[in-house]
Specification:
By secondary structure, the protein is mainly α. It has a domain of 50 residues. It contains three helices and no strands. The radius of gyration is 22 Å and the shape is rod-shaped. It starts with 9 loop residues before the first helix and ends with a helix. Pfam families: ATPase_gene1 (PF09527).
């Protein structure tokens, strides 16, 4: 007698699909925060190196926001 594969439970399949969808969007907030913080820290460091206080800090913030927004939109619009 050959073993039978377990039957596909519709509830379990729907739950697994929901978890896959949720997992795709879970880290978006942290990604945006990380991009902005890294941009700010990089701008602060460049300001200290080049004595351009606060120019690079502001440019770093703008760059971090742009990168975070780009990643957010790329993740959300991807199917």
């Amino acid at each position: 007698m050959t073993p039978q594969p377990p039957s596909e439970d519709p509830k379990r399949k729907a739950w697994a699909e929901s978890m896959r969808t949720i997992a795709r969007y879970t880290n978006l907030g942290w990604t945006i925060v990380a991009a902005v913080v890294l941009g700010l820290l990089g701008g602060r460091w460049l300001d200290k190196q080049w004595d351009t206080d606060p120019l690079m800090f502001i440019l770093g913030a703008v760059f971090g926001i742009a990168v975070g927004l780009y990643h957010f939109l790329a993740s959300v619009l991807r199917k």
